[in-house]
Amino acid sequence: MASRFPKFSQGLSQDPTTRRIWFGIATAHDFESHDDITEERLYQKIFASHFGQLAIIFLWTSGNLFHVAWQGNFEAWSQDPLHVSSYRTCNLGSSILDNQQ
Questions:
Q1: What separation in angstroms does the CA of 3 have from each of 13, 16, 17, 27?
Q2: Which residue has the higher pLDDT, 64 or 31?
Q3: Which helix (H) or strand (E) holds 71?
């Protein structure tokens, strides 16, 4: 493994110090040198990937909000809060468990 690592500089393959390890880590993350990518294009790709991640997060959040609103009983609770339990304490199907004694 020492003869192949790091890939970009074979002169460091016999180096006994940790400089060889640090060089391998640094060159693995140096996209401009081995991918022929400009700094501007790298920032564009990072920016685009952040928007993709935000889209996934907002899609997941909107799904949760939709299902809470769909199964909620806010209108009934706001008209009669003493006799209607709110959604956070409402367990669907709990009457089945209450009848089994």
A1: 5, 12, 14, 16
A2: 64
A3: helix 39-71
| C-alpha span between 36 and 15 (Å, rounded) | 28
Distance CA 35, CA 47 (A): 18
- For residue 68, give every residue at least 6 positions away whose Cβ sits within 8 Å of its Cβ, in sequence order, or none: 87
For residue 84, give Cα distances in angstroms to 11, 39, 73, 81, 90.
76, 59, 9, 5, 9
CA distance 42 to 50: 12
Residue entry with tokens 């880590």: 25
Using one digit for the tens of pLDDT, what is the confidence trace for 6-17? 455 666 666 667
Residue with tokens 């991918």: 35
Nearest one of 96, 97, 87, 94 to 67, comparing CA atoms:
87
Residue 6, preceding peptide bond in cis (omega within 30° of 0)? yes
